[in-house]
Amino acid sequence: MRKFLPTRRIACAVAAVVLLACLAMHPLTSSAGDVRQPTEHEVKVALLYKFANFVDWSEDAMQGAETFRLCMLGESPFGDALELLEGKRIKNRPLELLFASSPEHARGCHIIFVNQKWNSRLGEVLEVLGSQGVLFVGDGSGFARRGGVLEFALEGGRVGFVINPEAARREGLVVSSKLMRLARIVGTD
Amino acid sequence: MTKNFLHYMLSTLGCLLLLLAGQAFAQSDSGASDVDLTELSLETLMSIQVVTASREEQALFKTASAVYVITSEDIRRSAATSIPDILRTVPGVNVAQINANTWAVTVRGFNQRFSSKLLVLKDGMTIYTPTFSGVYWDIRDTLIEDVDRIEIIRGPGGALWGANAVNGIINIITKNAADTQGGLVAASGGTESGSVAGRWGGTVGDDLAYRIWAEGELHDASVHDDGSRGQDEWESLKGGIRADLSPTDDDRVTFIADFFTGHVGQNTWIPSPNAPGSLYLDEYESPYWGGNMLLRWEHDFSKDVDLAMQVFFDTVELKRRFKPGIYGPSQKAREATYTLDFDSQLSFPLGSRHDVIVGFGYRSIWDSFDGDPYWVLTMSPSHLQRSIFSAFIQDTIALWEDQWSLILGCKVEHNDYTGFEVQPSARLLWTPNDRHTVWAAVSRAVRTPSRVERDALYMRQPAMEVANMGLSPAAAAFASMGGLRSLLALGTATGGFGMGGQASIPVVPELQGSGDFVSEELIALELGYRMQPADEFSLDVAGFVNFYEKLMTMEANNLVLGPGYALLGVKTTNDRKGVGYGVEVSAKWNATDWWRLEAAYSFLEVDSWVNTVGRNLLPQFETEQSPQHSASLQSSMDLPHNIELDLIGRYTSELDGLDIGDIMEMDARLAWTPYENLEIALIGRNLLHDHHAEYKDRIVYLGDSQIERSVLAKVTWRF
């Protein structure tokens, strides 16, 4: 009683769409191409890199370090955006990107990005790694209040950040006044 | 035909090859031209408007239900001018326009003007009318530029959302006021409609953002199949304010107030008083007004402990004025509904493995139906207040290695019609990695009785002929009802009542509510799979089997002959069972960074049968009012010189129950942005036919309208 999909008509529609696309494609490949809008992840990765320029680590923390270590604690949410950091140098050292599955594996890191999973277990992370000169960066509200140093905060589609100066002091980090000025300041709960 | 097909396939293939070559070329090009973000200053980085969907998409990807989200960007590029039209390309959703101002929208079958098994929310407010459990889509439309996203959940959500979330939930979410700063003026004009809209958004201090907006619209009437014009033209004016306040880092307060008013024309078929057996087209006009206010407060006690509370008040008043006709001089009626709703929910972790959400709600509905005694709809009692209390709990349990989650939920509701209703659900989610998600669910949901089903003294259905209604079983039923035999004989004598389908005496069915009518029940089994083998491509498949019990049907109650027509009393009963099953597939492909393709296909089969044949009418009622197959293909292209081209093709198979053929249609949008803040768009809708019918309303018969091709120009200026 019911007819099945009229394959021919659908094929026509598909062909029409594809043909139009082909017609449209020709001029496009020869033009320069619009600049793509950066993703949230790319901006955050770039900020992770920039932060290092506005934070001073204690001599203890940097002593004997041949590389500057930026670590992802837990599965990294950033995906391909981390490619932005390829070949970069921080504090006159080559940037080394490390992926740690647990706090124990993240010893010796200068910046640690704490992923969602470990964010909810920040207490455990700080027990292992706290007060050792680490710039802890995390996502989501409350990370800084609970003892993280820097927290990304999305506001109206833009990436801002929150700083907990107490936590920075605990880590022996000196945060530049410029970074403080751009951030929202919170204390530890 | 085969030759043609081959020809198309070959040209398609050729184009694809060309395209892939182009893509490779474009990629090597764009890599070099991209700005190195790490070279930018902190201030610049902080000022970049980013694509933020990633987290939501991630969360969405790992949801244990069939969710589909339409973003504001999708809406902008959809060529749609109303909310129902935006929903047309969503898998599992069936949209049919009945006439210029009336739509039938449903999820997973049972499409009607007032599709009852669907919960529709706007910013957390229910916007379906409790009178029919359906939505006045014309009245409830909003400024589409303000819509942040529309979330469509197919399948039952009763465990979280409560009664009416049986076949699906449509949640319209408007933008935060912080995201609509500055000014916007949009004007459009075309063959079928015109509109002017304005919006201004600003801030007070650091913490408060607001917007104020208004939109006026005019819509042309549809045509009838005999070529005459309908009287269904309409106009509307709506506006509102929204304020978002964040007094502290942990508090968010939202206030929304909307107002809407308008004037809708409608036509309907009435038995002619002069020539027995014939129908004549009557018209009525329906002015309406309404508004709502919502206050929501969200507070984060800590990272994982969140509280949200909201209260809203909503009011809608519709008037209907008939032109003088068979039922006497100019008939008037008024239908007013007021809703006060309080809702709260608290989410918190319990141990390391449990995420719990608990919630409580209270809703109070008042309504009043006034009017002349022969008006189409009369209620007993004509004024009524009813309350709904509800509580729910949902626990998301992380199982083995965080790859498995079990989500258990239950909602208990108490309503004045049927007492306690319990709606549990269990969902299992497996996410072996970020690229694959498998989920399964079993849930129970109920659809509580609407006011009409319980309390309609009569809802006089502007007439239809016996043959059209397929009422032979009814006629047989009357034959078996001894007392009515003589009436039936009389009916037959005056023009052949019923039996052979050669009817000529119009029957005016009068739907009568029944105090015995209880909730419709559903047990649903669902299974879904999502995959994203590459960043550019994603696929979503969901299948379901729905077992319905106690579905609404109508039973012949009595028959009264009037001058030239017969009044057929029809009572609501729960005497029907049903089974629905189907599969929905959708795929998104970002073919290049300037071309996106999206395809959707849905298969649906719904069958229902009455428990006791005999007096029962319309055994096929509802089940053949949704297409068995629907498909859509969308193409969105960003062309050079700031030009966008969007093409949407869509197909629905025939509606056997309504004598509507299959429909292949196409919409297109061509937009040019000469300056950053100015957009000029040309929009064509229903381009393939002059006009076509999408639906015939058999419950409140509106005449058979046809939807016309339309062309529209739209200018949007932001400042």
TrEMBL record, chain B:
<keyword id="KW-0813">Transport</keyword>
<keyword id="KW-1134">Transmembrane beta strand</keyword>
<keyword id="KW-0798">TonB box</keyword>
<keyword id="KW-0675">Receptor</keyword>
<keyword id="KW-0732">Signal</keyword>
<dbReference type="GO" id="GO:0044718">
    <property type="term" value="P:siderophore transmembrane transport"/>
</dbReference>
<dbReference type="InterPro" id="IPR012910">
    <property type="entry name" value="Plug_dom"/>
</dbReference>
<keyword id="KW-0998">Cell outer membrane</keyword>
<dbReference type="Pfam" id="PF00593">
    <property type="entry name" value="TonB_dep_Rec_b-barrel"/>
</dbReference>
<dbReference type="GO" id="GO:0015344">
    <property type="term" value="F:siderophore uptake transmembrane transporter activity"/>
</dbReference>
<keyword id="KW-0472">Membrane</keyword>
<dbReference type="InterPro" id="IPR036942">
    <property type="entry name" value="Beta-barrel_TonB_sf"/>
</dbReference>
<dbReference type="InterPro" id="IPR037066">
    <property type="entry name" value="Plug_dom_sf"/>
</dbReference>
<dbReference type="InterPro" id="IPR000531">
    <property type="entry name" value="Beta-barrel_TonB"/>
</dbReference>
<dbReference type="GO" id="GO:0009279">
    <property type="term" value="C:cell outer membrane"/>
</dbReference>
<dbReference type="InterPro" id="IPR039426">
    <property type="entry name" value="TonB-dep_rcpt-like"/>
</dbReference>
<comment type="similarity">
    <text>Belongs to the TonB-dependent receptor family.</text>
</comment>
<feature type="signal peptide">
    <location>
        <begin position="1"/>
        <end position="26"/>
    </location>
</feature>
<feature type="domain" description="TonB-dependent receptor-like beta-barrel">
    <location>
        <begin position="250"/>
        <end position="687"/>
    </location>
</feature>
<protein>
    <submittedName>
        <fullName>TonB-dependent receptor</fullName>
    </submittedName>
</protein>
<feature type="domain" description="TonB-dependent receptor plug">
    <location>
        <begin position="61"/>
        <end position="169"/>
    </location>
</feature>
<dbReference type="Pfam" id="PF07715">
    <property type="entry name" value="Plug"/>
</dbReference>
<keyword id="KW-0812">Transmembrane</keyword>
